[in-house]
């Protein structure tokens, strides 16, 4: 290589060197940006929501006086009260359906005011015009779902003293007939042997 060619290459190298530092400075991130470029620590969902809320720059609600806030509060409470009433009615119907025998739909029972009918075994007929009936019930536990068997005894009015101990009878709900009698004999399903 000649000296002229050497000078040209050094001039080109000098120019390239002069241009080279300018480019890396622009490409190299600033120290503050370098800190941001580092991976952020894993945030919990709660912290993430908190950060998102702080970045949100939505419009603020208009200023309201005490009367307007009170009206909104009353409206919210009224809506909640309606929902609560509906839920209570629904849960009452479910309880009635679970406790009713005979498979009558709860809607019919509630709307028509139908009297409950139970079937059980007479355990005592010693009193005059009164029988003691034992009702066996099996229904799932509300929370655990296990079948729970319970028995209830009730006193029923037997006008003609027809039923005897051991008979399977059907009784219907009635007005209070005495201190303990709220049921009336409808029919004797099966006689005792």
Explain what you see.
Among the domains are: 41 residues, no CATH class; 76 residues, Nucleic acid-binding proteins (OB fold (Dihydrolipoamide Acetyltransferase, E2P)). Strand 2 and strand 3 form a beta hairpin. About 3% of the residues have low confidence. It is an alpha+beta fold. It is built from five helices and five strands, in the order H-H-H-H-H-E-E-E-E-E. The protein has a five-stranded mixed barrel. The relative contact order is 0.08.
Strand count, sense and barrel status of the largest sheet are: 5 strands, mixed, barrel
Give the helix proportion (percent range).
Answer: 40-55%
- The portion of residues forming beta strands comes to 15-25%
Q: What's the Cα radius of gyration?
A: 43 Å
Q: What is the H/E order? A: HHHHHEEEEE
Class inferred from helices and paired strands: alpha+beta
CATH topology of the domain at 115-190: OB fold (Dihydrolipoamide Acetyltransferase, E2P)
Regarding quaternary structure, how should these chains be classified?
single chain
CATH class of the domain at 115-190: Mainly Beta
- Nearest-integer average pLDDT: 82
CATH architecture level-2 label of the domain at 115-190: Beta Barrel
Low-confidence stretches: 21-26
Supply the number of helical segments: 5
CATH homologous superfamily heading of the domain at 115-190:
Nucleic acid-binding proteins
Strands, helices and their partners?
Blueprint: H1 3-27, H2 31-37, H3 45-55, H4 66-99, H5 106-112, E1 117-124, E2 130-140, E3 147-157, E4 168-173, E5 181-190
């Amino acid at each position: 290589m000649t000296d002229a060619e050497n000078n040209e290459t050094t001039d080109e190298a000098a120019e390239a060197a002069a241009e080279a530092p300018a480019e890396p400075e622009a490409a190299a991130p600033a120290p503050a940006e370098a800190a941001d470029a580092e991976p952020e620590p894993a945030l919990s969902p709660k912290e993430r929501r908190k950060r998102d809320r702080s970045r949100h720059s939505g419009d603020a609600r208009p200023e309201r006086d005490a009367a307007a806030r009170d009206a909104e509060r009353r409206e919210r409470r009224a809506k909640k009260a309606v929902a609560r009433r509906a839920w209570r009615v629904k849960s009452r119907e479910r309880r009635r359906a679970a406790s009713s025998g005979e498979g009558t739909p709860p809607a019919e029972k509630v709307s028509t005011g139908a009297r409950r009918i139970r079937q059980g075994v007479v355990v005592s007929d010693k009193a005059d015009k009164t029988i003691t009936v034992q009702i066996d019930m099996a229904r799932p536990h509300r929370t655990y779902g296990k079948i729970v068997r319970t028995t209830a005894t009730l006193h029923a009015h037997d006008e003609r003293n027809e039923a005897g101990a051991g008979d399977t009878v059907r009784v219907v709900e009635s007005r209070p007939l005495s201190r303990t009698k709220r049921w009336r004999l409808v029919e004797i399903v099966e006689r005792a042997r």
